[in-house]
Structures are given as structure tokens and as C-alpha cells.
Amino acid sequence: MQFFLFLALILALALVLFAVQNSIVISLKFVNWSFEGSLAFILSLTFVAGMIAGIFLLIPAWWRKTMQGRVQRKRIHELEKELSSLAEEDDDESESDGIGG
Asked: Which residues pair with 26 in a beta bridge?
């Protein structure tokens, strides 16, 4: 746990250093929209937008695996019930064999 805290601290310091060194104001234009901000802020927004796009691309695979997991858990539950009922039947047969013998 301390390793991850240390890693987060190093990352935060690197981000602060990056922001301080890239504080120049730049203009960003897209179609009719324009925006002015620091280079570090615009790069951070671009990075976050890329992360969100990546998450959206991963959602279908995650959903598919979740559905498969639900189906498999349901099947496991059914098989466990079947196994326990077969074990009970086996116990009943062995008891009846022992009483009659």
C-alpha cells in the first residue's frame, strides 16, 4: 500500500512540474469553436478525452464477459443442486440397503 502511495506522490509531483513548465497560453480551434488555455491544461483534457474514449471501447467486451459470468454462475448453481439431490438419493439407497440386509 505504501508503494502505491509513493508512486501516486511521484506522479503528482511530475504532473505539477509538467504544468509549471508548460504554462504558455495556446489557442485551440475546431470548426467554429475556439478555446484558449494553458498547454498543460489542454494536454490534460486531451488525455482525459482519450481515456474516456478507451473506456467506451472496452464497455462491450466487459458487458459480454459479465453476461457470460452470470450464465456460468447460474449453471454452477444448477449443477450443485443436481449433485446434492443425487447425493441424497445415493444416501437414501444405501440406508435402505443397510436396513433390509
From this structure: 37
Backbone angles phi, psi at 30, to 5 degrees: -145, 115
Residue 101: band (very low, low, confident or very high) from pLDDT cuts 50, 70, 90 = very low
Tell how far CA 41 is from the center of its chain: 27
Give the integer Cα–Cα distance in Å for 20 and 84: 66
Looking at residue 84, what is its pLDDT? 92
Q: Residue written as cell 448453481? A: 77
> Are 51 and 59 spatial neighbours (Cβ–Cβ below 8 Å)?
no
Instruction: Tell me if 37 sits within 8 A of 26, measured CB to CB.
Output: yes
Burial class (CB in 10 A: 0-12, 13-18, 19+), 42: middle
Sign of the four-CA dihedral 94, 96, 98, 101: negative
First vs last Cα of the chain: how many Å apart?
64
Position 78 scores a pLDDT of 95
The reported pLDDT for the residue numbered 98 is 59
